[in-house]
Amino acid sequence: MDLKKLLTRSLSGIIYVAIIVGCILWGYIGLTVLAILFGILATIEFEKICEDVNTRNLSLIYLDTLGVVCLALSFNPVMPVFPIILWGCVMITRFILELYVKNDNPVRSLALSMLTQIYIGVPLACMSATAVIMVPKVILIVFLMLWINDTGAYLVGSMIGKHRLFERISPKKSWEGFFGGLLFNLIAATLFCYCSDSFMGLHSNIFQWLGLAIIVTVFGTWGDLIESMFKRHFHIKDSGNIIPGHGGILDRIDSFLLAMPAVTVYFSLLYMFA
């Protein structure tokens, strides 16, 4: 990689991280902005991957995007109740609209729309729900652990990685890299535990922090593999080019899209059995 590409990649990465950190530290309003940005950009990228956007009725794309954004805001205290009601209206309209558009495969079109709601909308809804259950800053912990996992997996995998983790989907990933990322996250969780009096609102012990690290690492890795599966199926390298040097927004949040629902379940169970 030449110096210009390295600088471009580094600068765009810094801006991307700064936007996420800034929005989360802003609180519920910032999370609302982040959810809307992720929802719009990820929906367009995903549907572009799965079906040529230029040949698809634009009204369907607009509805799918609106549906994802409504799900993303469905648990946000800034806009309570209304988004989930609007999402229901959007879904009803989406099915009815398929009757009137010229489409040779309406089942495939509807299936893509529903997959978009589940794959992108539900994790963003979980982000809002978790911020309400806990506090918005807990979302930052999830992102930090995802980034730490990626860093650890890359460093360890590039040095000693020999045994392929999932060669059919991602030939470069190794078991050594996976356990390296897990080790980095366990260390980070320990530091987070001893640097904080409480677990973002829950009075917790080291085991709850370590449990979070394991959840984020395992499901984050699966999330990365799932997007790789999509890209391999459609024979593409990146989901887009909105982040210079890094690809598309889906390439950056693929791990988050599976880790976030798992984290929400984890936090809910902690509350239930606390």
Based on secondary structure, the structural category is mainly alpha
Global Rg: 19 Å
Oligomer: single chain
Cα(first) to Cα(last) distance is: 50 Å
Low-confidence stretches: none
Query: How many DSSP H or I helices?
Result: 9
Summed up, the domain count is 2
Q: Major sheet: order of its strands? A: 1-2
* Mean pLDDT figure: 87
The largest pleated sheet is described as: 2 strands, antiparallel
Short description:
This protein has 274 residues and is an all-alpha fold.
Describe this structure in words.
The chain is mainly alpha-helical and 274 residues long. The chain folds into two domains: 28-134, no CATH class; 136-274, no CATH class. It has nine helices and two strands, in the order H-H-H-H-H-H-E-E-H-H-H. It has helices spanning 3-26, 28-50, 58-72, 82-97, 106-133, 137-160, 175-194, 206-233, 249-272; strands at residues 164-166, 170-174. A hairpin with a 3-residue loop joins strand 1 (164-166) and strand 2 (170-174). The longest helix has 28 residues, at 106-133. The termini are far apart. The mean pLDDT is 87.
Task: Output the keywords.
mainly alpha; two-stranded antiparallel sheet; 9 helices
Any chance you could write out the topology, listing elements then pairs?
Blueprint: H1 3-26, H2 28-50, H3 58-72, H4 82-97, H5 106-133, H6 137-160, E1 164-166, E2 170-174, H7 175-194, H8 206-233, H9 249-272
Antiparallel strand pairs: 1-2
Helix pairs in contact: 1-2, 2-3, 2-5, 3-4, 3-5, 5-9, 6-7, 6-8, 7-8, 8-9
